[in-house]
Every structure is written in C-alpha cells, then in structure tokens.
Amino acid sequence: MKQYFLHIFLPTLAMMLLLGCHSYPTDVKQVQQLPAIWPDYTEVTIPTNIAPLNFAMADNDVKTIDVMVKGSKTGELHVNGDYADFDVDEWHQLLEANKGGKLTFTVCAEKNGEWTQYLDFQVFVSEDEMDAWGITYRRIPPSYEIFSKMGIYQRCLSNFEETALIENTQIPGMCINCHTANRTNPDQYVWHVRGQHGATIMNIKGNEELLQARNDGLGGSMVYPYWHPDGRYCAFSTNKTTQMFHTAGRKRIEVYDSESDVFVYDTQTHTILKDTLTMKSDWAENTPAFSPDGKWLYFTTAKREIYPTHFDQEKYSLCRVAFDARTGRLGEHVDTLINTTTTGKSVTWPRPSYDGRYIMYTQTDFGYFSVWHPEADLWLLDLQTGETRPLDEVNSSRSESYHNWTPNSRWFLFTSRRDDGLYTRIYFSSIDRNGKATKPFLLPQRNPKEFYGLSFYSYNTPDFTSRPIEPHARELGRQIESDERVETKILSVH
To answer: Which of 51, 182, 244, 271: disulfide with 188, CB 3.0–4.6 Å?
Structure first.
C-alpha cells in the first residue's frame, strides 16, 4: 500500500510543483508582430542533427514564455518557463519527422501579469545533412599580450556537450592556437603552442609529433596551416606578427605582418619546401589553402608596405599555383584570381568548398587579420563562372570571418561579432546548388541568454569534425613541457 501511495503521489506532487513555478496563458492579447526573441532564430534553416534552438524573449522584463511548436508534416512540442527549453530527444524526433518541411512556433509571453501572443514564425528543416559530429574551436578571453586562460574544445552539435581537448592551465604561460584537421578528419590535425616550450603539434593517425616551433632557415614559425587532401603535405605561412592600438574610430587593434611567406611541409621527410614563387622578398604571402583535388595551392599576397605608417595600404590579392603531390613541387607560374588593383579591397582566409565549386573568403578594406575589422564580410567566388559576390544573406555590419565547410559542402560556419561588436561567436548557414545561403543561426546553448550574457570568451578558428577526438591532455602536457622536438629540414626548390 505504501509503495502504491508513493507511486501515485510523487509524480502528482512533481506536476503540482511544476505548475506552481510558471503561469500559463490566460486572457491573451494578440499582436500583429513577430516575437523579439534571443537568439533570433526566426526563419532560419537547420539540419536535423542540430541541438535544440532554445531561446528567451529579448525583453528582460518578461517573466514566462510559452511556446508551441508544430511540424508541417507531423508532431508538436510544448514548453513553458523562463525560456524555451526543449527536450533534446523530443526535439530530434520532431526534426526527423519533418525533414524537408518546417516547424511553426507560436510564442506567448507574460509581462507585468499580462499575456501577449505574437505572430507565428517558421524554422525550416533542411533535407541536406550537416555531415559532422561536431565542431572544434579555440575559446579565448579578451587579452592582447598575456596568455590568460584559453583552450581548444570540441562540441557535439546534436546536444550541448563540450569537451576540453587541451587548456593552457595544463601548460602554464603558453598560448594555444590554430587547431586544424584535414577535411574535418580527426585522424589528422595540427595545432600550435607558443611560449617557452613552443611547438607545432602534428597528429597523423594517432602518431603525435612535436616539431620545433621555429626554424632559423625559415626565418620564423609555422603559423596558418592547411592540409593537402592526401595527408602527406601541409601548407603553412610563416609570419612575424605585430599589433598596434587605434586611438579613435571603430577599429581597436590592428594586426599586421612585417614579414610573411607561404611554404609546403612534407610530413614524411620532415622537410620544409621553400619556393620563391610563394616566398618573394618584396611581397607578403599568407593564408594558404589547397584545392580539394590537391592540384592547386591558393594563397593571398600583397606588396610590402612601410610599417607601421602605411599599414592601411597593404591589400592582398587571391592567387593560386599548381601543386604536384608526386614530387611535392609547385608549378612554374602564379595565377591571380582576385586582384586588389581592380577591387581596391583585401582578400583573406580563402576556404575552398570540398566539392570544388566555390572559394569562400573574407574581404576587408586592407590587411588580413579580419576579426578586428568591422567592415569584414564573407564573399563567394564561383570557380565555374569566375563570378564573385558578397554573401549579403549572412553578412552584418560587424566583422565576419574564420569560416569553414562541411564535407558535403552544403553547410558552413563562421565567426561574427554581430551581437555586441566585442565577442566573436559561431554562426551556421546552409547553401543551395545555386550558391544562395540561408539566414545564419547562432550556435545553440542550453540557456543561451544566460550563457552568452555571462561569457567573456570569444570563439576562434572553428571547424567541423566528423567525430570526437579522444582527449589526452595530461600526456600531451607532459610532452610539451619536455624538450623533445622533431627537427625540420629546409629544401629550396627554386
């Protein structure tokens, strides 16, 4: 009898407590306007494997929000509380059942004891998969010279689980940056540690090598990487980076290179392949990227200016040079795809789609370190037609940068400062067969308004990953603290 009583009473008590925590819509006033929600998920397109699009009202005086979600094909969800908090499993069931359809959201909000119902809005469920388990990124605090707490993390896209791959609390006093996988494959990645025990860490199918961070014959460190699709080669830039602070205007910081070149590294022979085509003394080559078939090496290049007085005159063009993976050699001449003398602008961070159709890049007024440029926008170059255009569907009045593609080239992510102009956050968008992108949506969080409102971290160099990486931070930290390093050789080929 006692067990029966508890079986009936406890669920009933729980329901009573739940109902007592929040009110439900009564005497509802209807208005002819969309709800002002945060994040703004109205009219976005999402994949079926994305975490729930939890949201709150932008108005902090709203006490309770009531949301009904109905699928165009079948199914519905109902939530009520301080913010819309959808059950992960129920959310994915609804998305899967409405793939290729849409979800209609009906939002009611309580403020000052009165309920208001807004116009419905839609979220479209794409037929195209976001073929990735999750994403990786660096998360950094607002510091300029001191390596305060930072780390490289991975995040499952289907829920809200985040895992630290390495944090600099395990290697105190060092900077961690630039985690790059080969076409989202976690079997092969590279990243850097800067500081007293600096190193370039390369992982190839579980075999980890710590390369010397600097080679005197190169004149600097191995900086911005991009893998050749066959995995043997990796292109890098080598940079001597300087930063300065603006005293007025919209820009706070300017980052420029007093020297920069592009080279190819052979992982099998530990050889740096220097070529004068991408290492010209009067030019600054930067931000390399291989084509998905491995036959071309894209990079940006600018005529060197007088630093720092003429920093705003350095403008990069987009170029490419043939690459032969059999010999590890570049071709004989360089093609210019986008010329700054024609556009008057600067190209940075070229990222080819993996299907070979497009190159997405960031365009700024000058320079290449676009995160500090409010005018930085994403552009799309169609390699079939040669046409290029701004991605107005996703751009904002603030900086867009650091973009990457899913393996099927149907989705991309990028960082943006559109929310407050201070912190970079990750956004996603899909792109159709005609190169038209959808309205971007912010990386979902369990309680997004609270999470982003209390976070003083920016997301940096994000990319997709096809599956999770097994963390081994303790062993890796021991290796980094040691003096064990693989020496690299120099081979000049022109």
So the answer is: 182
